[in-house]
Specification:
The chain is α+β, with helices and mostly antiparallel strands. The chain has eight helices and ten strands. It has a three-stranded antiparallel sheet, covered by helices on one side. A three-stranded antiparallel sheet has the order 4-8-9, with no helix packed on it. A two-stranded antiparallel ribbon has the order 5-6. Residues 21-182 form the Aminoglycoside phosphotransferase domain.
Amino acid sequence: MNRTWTKTYSSPAAAAAAAVNYDWLRDVGQISVPDLIHRDGRDLVFAHVDGHHPAPADLPDLAVALARFHVEAHRKLAGAAMNEPHPTTSGLTIPGFSHRREQRLIELLAAPNPPRTRLTAEAVRAWISHADALPPAVYKDTNLRNILIDQGSKPVNVDFDTLTLAPFGYDLAKLIVSAVMTYGSLATGTIGEMLDRYNVFLSQAALRPCAKDEFTAWIEMHHILTFPYLGRNGYRYSWIEVSAWHY
């Protein structure tokens, strides 16, 4: 018997939304997805994937895989405006980059115990506005737990809950923050190598690389957004305390 795994959502509507995201991501390709075997009410049933969540040694190659995925997603997003919802030809509407993100960042910065960060509320607004002029890719919440490295050393997406427009580098920044908060400090040069390899692929595709100041801003946004989960979901280390990323 073929092995499966089931994800149960809070409502049939939430499951249906994840299934629509799955269909679009499967069509983009470049990073594999497991077969979606059955859709039933609150449940999505997927084929089992043998593999492991990315380890630090997997990260540079995963950065290149993300670049391939983002370039192909960009090609499917013709006419998309970064901070506006984008209706696709498949019937999916992908939320804009600013959708709920700007408000959530500002809320967290105003919390009684906010994360230590160089971003202010004004800087958040400015970077969201800056992103509006950048070519759109997507954010798929590429944290370590949403990716498996299969038996052939290829990445497989295994979570389809979140999909928004985002600038190039934003999803890579989430992977890096997730890795540091899970494993602690990465080997010297790892983060720079990941960004360099990602940008080389963008340049080969005749696309604008992600500038270091932009990438720093996306890193800080993910630090703010992920800070409330410290101590949960495998996040054992504070980004600000153990990061090897130098500003």
